[in-house]
Amino acid sequence: MSSHVYLKSLCNSVFSLNKNIQSVAVINNPGRTMEKISRSQFTKQYTDHLNELSCMSYALHVSMGRKIADLIKKYRE
Predict the structure, then answer these.
(1) Hey, how many other C-beta atoms are within 10 angstroms of the C-beta on 10?
(2) 55: buried, middle or exposed (CB in 10 Å: 19+, 13-18, 0-12)?
(3) CA–CA distance, 12 with 54 (Å, rounded to integer)
(4) Measuring CA to CA, which residue among 21, 32, 24 is closest to residue 55?
(5) Are the beta carbons of 36 and 7 closer than 8 angstroms?
(6) Separation of alpha carbons 34 and 24, rounded Å
(7) What is the pLDDT of residue 14?
(8) Mean pLDDT, 10 residues at a time, over the chain (77 residues)?
């Protein structure tokens, strides 16, 4: 199974869990969208540009959280 098909299947599986889920995206480390599925109302409200900025912001937040956690771990040792 190719990675594209796997990611699309993963998005569809998460998306079908609950009708309140508006969008599912798989992002890489820099925050670029690898695969995405959204309900039409969500797509109308959030353009691809805003969605990409949100994903990049989240990736940066996670990255900084990891770095801080590593620093705290070193400090406590």
Answers:
(1) 14
(2) buried
(3) 21
(4) 32
(5) no
(6) 11
(7) 92
(8) 82 90 86 84 72 81 87 82
